Amino acid sequence: MALFSGLSDRINHVFSKLKSRGSLTELEIKQAMREVRIALLEADVNVNVAKDFIKKVSEKAVGEDVLKGLNPAQQVIKIVNDELTELMGSSQSKLVVSSKLPTVIMMCGLQGAGKTTMCGKLGLYLKKQGKKPLLVACDIYRPAAIKQLQIVSQKAGVGFFEMGQKNPAKTAKQSIDFARQNGFDTIIIDTAGRLHINRELMDELKEVKEAVGTDEILLTVDSMTGQDAVTVAEAFDKELDITGVIMTKLDGDTRGGATLSIKAVTGKPIKFCGTGEKLEDIEVFHPDRMAGRILGMGDVLSLIDKAQQAVSQEDAAKLAKKLKDQSFDLNDYLAQFENLKKMGDLKDIVGMLPGAGKLKISEKDIDEKEILRFKAIIQSMTPRERSDCRILNYTRKKRIAAGSGTTVQEVNKLVKQFEQTKELMKRFGNGKRGMKLPF
Amino acid sequence: MGFFKKIIEGLKKTQQNIGFKLKQLFKVGVFDDDFFDDLESVLLSSDIGASASMDIVDELRDRLEEEKVSDPDGAMGILKEILVEKLSADKFEVTSPAVVMVVGVNGVGKTTTIGKLANQFKKQGKSVVIAAADTFRAAASEQLEVWAERANVRIVKHQEGSDPAAVVFDAISSAKSKKTDVVLIDTAGRLHNKVNLMEELKKINRVISREYPEAQRKNLIVLDATTGQNALAQVEIFNEAVNIDSIALTKLDGTAKGGVVIAIKEKFGIPIDFVGVGEGIDDLMPFDAESFVEGIL
């Protein structure tokens, strides 16, 4: 399941409402953006972040590019996606490795964000990278937290260090000596969950930071967090100058708007995400992939790119007009086949379509050889026959079949399919983002 | 310290608290589109959610017009009324014998809530046994043991990784033989979209119904106040699996407002009965709609 499928469904829905009439009006964009805003809010994107986002997208959408464009709905999708990608950041970020061993990583966050489990996951991850991590228990408040970390470290097969309920800064400092003596090259400090407004406990984190000279301070955030994510992230960042964020519980059905908000507000990179209950369930966070997933349009964007390259905008405009005038004929159908070939493998293209399932276009319906036959059939028709297939009687069909090396049945099949396509395209033209597709 | 005070204190700590913003808004006393837009933003930022926020704004708009209210205080009063109305419900009460099963996703504070609940029942003069049916998370039963000690109640536990339903079975047998008033069941945190884990929960639920049909049943879901709209999905799916009767909203001592419970109450009719406002054993309060609304506004 796509992590952000909820959000993408909404945005998909929004764009299915957009009418493609060659150009989008300001009013239409406004309506679309209202829906996008609701979708973002339902996905828990922060109110202000959503507001800024909508403003940016609207400005770009109402601008020249779109209004002069020939396929505005597609371009709006592109703008929304581009902005989302920009907001998420484009490159993945790696953990810092200190030149002076050991590298010190401190985890922090609210209660229940999943810090202790994440310590184990990160430990196992680093171990697999050839590191020798040591987990250090500095949560001296939650009952059995130390014990939990100990069990987790055993499961991960990494080192464990504790000094009971002693002052966390002291424990952390001692752990460095312990690491050096015992050949551990990376220290992962588990700290108690705390509220960002708890002065005393925030100071405690600062003490730990100063005592050991952290290389990484990673804020662990539950990806189901709502509007408060921004407040929390800002507070931790202000106090500790965090180096990155880890999103946990991304395996749930959360739409994960918090991810967007935190990135937008703190500017700090999201480095990892937790995607399950097992210790192996940790992934490097790929912001670029994430943005694509938010739109959930699969690879519809690359399809748009491909389509834009293959079909000249002029052709697209003509086609749009024909659809509107209902004068779409077999000549155009043939032209669409040609365009499709330019776009690449047909099966790939169908796979890229988000609504493909709903439109009942499955892979088995598309046979490349059949398309070649269809082309031959159309090419065996007279111009008059191509522009009006109603005149096709049995004699004509027989001639066409002979000319194209097919049978009358196949000619009939093509005509029937053409009629269906015309119907489908009418619907496409009225709704589905104005994608002009010939099947 | 009372619930109200705690929340107010939490608010004070927030630099840009929305209550302040809202009061400024009402003070202006011009109830135009801009006002309603701003009000909507305020509601949204407390996690009430897009559709519920819009409903509330529409309702306020209608009522201001109907009742011809134009003064700031009157308008604020109506807004509060609308919100309180949406939240009010009967009081949470258990009759002996009772089984309270506590469910929720990972990290919301189930174990802590159980410790606090045990303490509350104990204070009401009820005897309590805790079933440590979270056999999955490392050291979960140790954590619960500490709470059981603090509340001075019995606990039934098995080894890590054992069958949670068996723990529940034992706890029920123990309660029956010792005539214990309340069985409190801690379950492992599970993301609601994990089918197997939800099946496990159903199994526990069946065991309780089968073994202890005479007991009053309460299934309580713990929600983290910092959770956003996903809380709706959590309630929906847990409710489908085991029928949820009650909500405890935890971590309200932070800056999160937990407004999503308004949307939840609207959609599922499940009342919020408890709020968690700290880590101390007494930091679990009965829910009070009016104080909660004060906290949001």
Could you explain how this protein is built, in words?
The complex is a heterodimer of chains A (439) and B (297). By secondary structure, chain A is α/β, with parallel strands linked by helices. Chain A has helices at 5-17, 26-42, 47-62, 64-68, 72-88, 115-128, 145-156, 168-182, 199-212, 228-240, 257-266, 287-295, 300-310, 313-325, 330-343, 346-352, 368-379, 383-387, 394-404, 408-430; strands at residues 103-109, 133-138, 159-161, 186-191, 216-222, 244-248, 270-274, 282-284. Chain A has an eight-stranded mixed β-sheet with strand order 3-2-4-1-5-6-7-8, sandwiched between helices. Residues 1-8, 66-70, 296-303, 351-364 and 430-439 of chain A have low confidence and may be disordered. Chain B has two domains: 3-87, Four Helix Bundle (Hemerythrin (Met), subunit A), CATH 1.20.120; 98-296, P-loop containing nucleotide triphosphate hydrolases (Rossmann fold), CATH 3.40.50.300. In chain B, helix 1 packs parallel to helix 12 and helix 8 runs parallel beside helix 9 (195-211). Residues 10-16 of chain B have low confidence and may be disordered. Classes of the chains: A alpha/beta (439), B alpha/beta (297). The interface between A and B is large, with 47 and 46 residues.
